[in-house]
Amino acid sequence: MEAQPTASHFVDGDWLEDTAGAVIESRYPATGAVIARVHAATPAVLDRALEAAGRAQADWAARRPVERGRVLLRAAGLLRARNAELARLETLDTGKPIAETLVADAASGADCLEYFGGLAAAIGGETIPLGRDFAYTLREPLGVCAGIGAWNYPIQIACWKAAPALACGNAMVFKPSELTPLSALRLAQALVEAGAPSGLFNVVQGAGAVGHALATDARVAKLSLTGSVETGRKVYAAAADGPKPVTLELGGKSPLIVFDDADLEDAVGGAMLGNFYSAGQICSNGTRVFVQDGIRPRFLERLAARTEAIRLGDPLDPATQMGPLASDAQMARVLAFIEGAIAEGARLVTGGRRWGNAGWHVEPPVFDGVTDDMTVAREEVFGPVLSVLGFAEEAEVVARANTSPFGLAAGVFTRDLARGHRVAAGLEAGVCWINAYNLTPVEMPFGGVKASGFGRENGRAAIDAWSRLKTVHVGMGPVDAPF
Ligand code: NAD
């Protein structure tokens, strides 16, 4: 098998196998061929991972922050040196084109390790003058944290959780999605090579049951999930028993608003980026494209022409621009949404059929005439399905954009600077782009509001998610007791 790892898990600084766990097959979405088989973690594997993480955390937290940062920076260097190999692995596991995985996956993971590696030594508390007395705060690690990942950006998600967690002095047990078990193992290996203590970052395989076991284990101090709203609710409920803090990075149905005065090619490009990159399997995608009436005919014409020019094909071919969906189930789901949209009266402008004889490709459809009540405008598809909705007025479109229970992201294209900022201020979303879409540099916080979750990854804000404050009040004079 082309991508078989040395063993299923990476625990306590080394590969670990336990064949008693259920078999998980990883398939190459372009052909359906099995590329690796791993086993789900048994209770014995989880125990070893959590015990090792507990030991490693004590050692790690006692190290100087600058030393912790250096380990993350060295790991970033290893990911960069192995970028081509990791890109190939990610393409085999997810089906995303190599043209994307070479620039977006391990590379953005390395950015994240560099950002938090650099920040590690600057994480600290503050001094609070209180007249005669004073107080100070200590920023402490939480302990052993659990990360649970989705399948669209496997190594990036692992890095987005591991890098800030480790920078703050925590240890982690990470469970990748059962659909994409491979690349997180390579991050674990790189961290050990970079000097992380054995057990600091462990990878265990499994599906929801293993995630649930982590969520409910008393040794886990904090949970961070990237996944669907449905899973988010379960993880949040499981954490309530602790209770333990949770970060939830969930799904979305984000609006992208194009005003008449927008640069046409930029707006079309933004809408395509926000719907078709990674075959549409991106949580922050702008899947409700609201286009003002004056520009709509020209917008649709250019959108259809540029969409029809997208090169679908073998994800390992550097010329391929769109690969297959990540699984046959996901392809079936996407095709069902397309049929449903047609049945509910949306106008199919282009695309929408299954493509090729093997694998799970779908020709990206563009729909026009989508209305707010249609299923395709309300539910997350997680596939390359672009819906255009018309609008006339700014106030109307902001109100309609905000009717969604989700609130992950939003975008606005306009040449009117004041309107751009006004609309961004009015949208209920964790991340807004003005004249851009889906850019997620590590320097800026990322996360949702409403049903899309809470807590932030990336940026300085992530430090709040992976540390806790201790306040120390220092009395500098006699105690003034009323007794
Ligand atoms: P999913 O919810 O099915 O699974 C996510 C992870 O949770 C997997 O590792 C899965 O094994 C685990 N899991 C499932 N049940 C669990 C349980 N009861 N307890 C603990 N863990 C459990 O999501 P998916 O299909 O892998 O990913 C797609 C979803 O993720 C979409 O909704 C997408 O929008 C969202 N997503 C969000 C972001 C973000 O940053 N906001 C990024 C990527 C994907």
Walk me through what this model shows.
By secondary structure, the protein is an alpha/beta fold. Helix content is 38%, strand content 20%. The chain is built from 16 helices and 22 strands. The strands form six sheets. A seven-stranded mixed β-sheet has the order 14-17-18-13-12-19-20, with helices on both faces. Helix 5 runs parallel beside helix 6 and helix 6 packs parallel to helix 7. The mean pLDDT is 98. Bound molecules: nicotinamide-adenine-dinucleotide (NAD). The site of nicotinamide-adenine-dinucleotide (NAD) has 29 residues, from helix 8, strand 10 and helix 9.
Entry keywords:
seven-stranded mixed β-sheet, alpha/beta, 20% strand, single chain, 483 residues, binds nicotinamide-adenine-dinucleotide, 22 strands
Summarize the structure.
With 483 residues, this protein is an alpha/beta fold. Helix content is 38%, strand content 20%. Helix 7 links the parallel strand 8 and strand 9.
List the topology elements.
Blueprint: E1 9-11, E2 14-16, E3 23-27, E4 34-39, H1 43-61, H2 65-81, H3 83-94, H4 98-104, H5 106-119, E5 127-130, E6 133-141, E7 144-148, H6 154-167, E8 171-175, H7 183-193, E9 201-203, H8 208-216, E10 222-226, H9 229-240, E11 246-249, E12 255-258, H10 264-276, E13 288-292, H11 296-308, H12 328-343, E14 347-350, E15 354-355, E16 361-362, E17 366-368, H13 375-378, E18 386-391, H14 394-401, E19 409-413, H15 417-426, E20 431-434, E21 453-454, H16 462-465, E22 467-474
Parallel strand pairs: 7-8, 7-10, 8-9, 10-11, 12-13, 12-19, 13-18, 17-18, 19-20
Antiparallel strand pairs: 1-2, 3-4, 5-6, 6-22, 11-21, 14-17, 15-16
Residues 148-152, 175, 177-178, 207-208, 211-212, 215, 225-228, 231, 234-235, 249-252, 283, 380, 382, 408, 448 line the site of nicotinamide-adenine-dinucleotide.
